[in-house]
Inverse folding.
C-alpha cells in the first residue's frame, strides 16, 4: 500500500515486530521514499483474503533502517507510533516534528454490528415507503 505524504522525507525502512510470541521476526515494514510511505505486511500462514499491503516476501531493505520495534496492544487492535527526531535523517524525517501512527490489524466489524446496521437500513427504507 502506498500513501502520499504532503512533504518529502528521509528515505529508509522502519521495521516492526509482533508482540505475540515475543519474537524479533519482522511482521511489517514502513518504507519512506521521497514523499511516499509504503506499508508492507507479512501475509499470515493460511490467509485466503489478504489485505492490500500483505506480501509473501518482503522487498530488500534500504540502507537507512530503524528498528526493529514492537507493536503495542492486543492482537486485532495493535499498532506502533514512529516519531523520527527532526533533522536526524532517520526514515520518514521531513526535517521538522512529525508523528506517524500505524495500526496493524484493523478489526473487522462484528456480525452483530453488521446485522444491526442492515436492520436499521431496512427499517429506514420501510418508513420512507410508508410516507410515500
Amino acid at each position: 500500500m502506498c500513501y502520499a505524504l504532503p512533504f518529502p522525507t528521509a528515505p529508509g525502512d522502519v521495521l516492526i515486530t509482533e508482540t505475540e510470541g515475543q519474537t524479533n521476526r519482522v511482521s511489517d515494514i514502513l518504507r519512506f521514499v521521497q514523499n511516499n510511505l509504503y506499508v508492507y505486511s507479512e501475509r499470515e500462514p493460511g490467509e485466503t483474503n489478504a489485505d492490500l499491503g500483505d506480501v509473501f516476501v518482503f522487498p530488500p531493505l534500504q540502507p537507512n533502517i530503524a528498528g526493529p520495534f514492537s507493536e503495542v496492544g492486543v492482537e486485532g487492535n495493535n499498532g506502533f507510533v514512529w516519531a523520527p527526531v527532526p533533522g536526524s535523517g532517520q526514515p520518514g524525517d521531513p526535517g521538522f516534528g512529525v508523528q506517524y501512527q500505524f495500526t496493524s490489524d484493523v478489526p473487522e466489524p462484528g456480525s452483530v454490528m453488521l446485522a444491526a446496521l442492515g436492520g436499521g437500513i431496512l427499517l429506514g427504507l420501510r418508513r420512507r415507503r410508508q410516507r410515500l
Summary: The longest strand covers residues 26-33. Helices lie at 111-131.
